[in-house]
């Protein structure tokens, strides 16, 4: 059987191999990974100050309003079950690009939500698609070093 996704290099000095990148390029990628992880981590709790406002706007209890935190973290915890193996099969960028775009779109959905249900669903999916920061970043760093 032929492995359709096998990545090979043109010898030990192939410039496309992440282990052969310059120190500056590796450093830049690590900085981007750190910024990515920071943004995703902040995304889990950035809505906390708005809990009181959510209660009033959507006329829900404190327990329901705080679910916006739980749904995001639940998504953040379950996403790696999908994206870690996917990044090994399809490549890191094939996972990073669409999940980051979907993370941004679902956060936009959070901002435009007209009811608590749509907000919770958007927070869940934002959490799922944000999980690549924790699921794939370590693999990316391993590929370079």
Automatic annotation (TrEMBL):
Location within or outside the cell: Cell membrane
Residues annotated as domain Major facilitator superfamily (MFS) profile: 29-145
Alphabetized UniProt keyword annotations: Cell membrane, Membrane, Transmembrane, Transmembrane helix, Transport
Alphabetized Pfam families for the sequence: MFS_1
Domain of life: Eukaryota
Transmembrane segments: 27-52, 64-83, 95-113, 120-142
One cellular component term from this protein's GO annotations in UniProt: plasma membrane
GO molecular function list: transmembrane transporter activity
InterPro entries: MFS (IPR011701), MFS_dom (IPR020846), MFS_trans_sf (IPR036259)
Family: Belongs to the major facilitator superfamily. DHA1 family. Polyamines/proton antiporter (TC 2.A.1.2.16) subfamily.
Name recorded for this polypeptide: Major facilitator superfamily domain-containing protein
Lineage: Eukaryota, Fungi, Dikarya, Ascomycota, Pezizomycotina
């Amino acid at each position: 059987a032929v492995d359709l996704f096998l990545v090979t290099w043109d010898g030990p000095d192939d410039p496309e191999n992440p282990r052969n990148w310059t120190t500056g390029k590796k450093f830049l990628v690590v900085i981007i990974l750190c910024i990515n992880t920071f943004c995703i981590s902040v995304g889990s709790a950035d809505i906390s100050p708005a809990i009181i406002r959510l209660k009033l706007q959507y006329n829900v209890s404190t327990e329901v309003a705080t679910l916006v935190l739980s749904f995001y973290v639940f998504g953040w915890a379950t996403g790696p079950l999908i994206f870690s193996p996917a990044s090994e099969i399809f490549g890191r960028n094939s996972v990073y690009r669409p999940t980051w775009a979907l993370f941004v779109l679902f956060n936009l959905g959070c901002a435009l939500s007209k009811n608590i249900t749509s907000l919770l669903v958007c927070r869940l999916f934002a959490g799922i698609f944000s999980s690549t920061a924790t699921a794939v970043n370590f693999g990316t760093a391993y590929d370079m070093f």
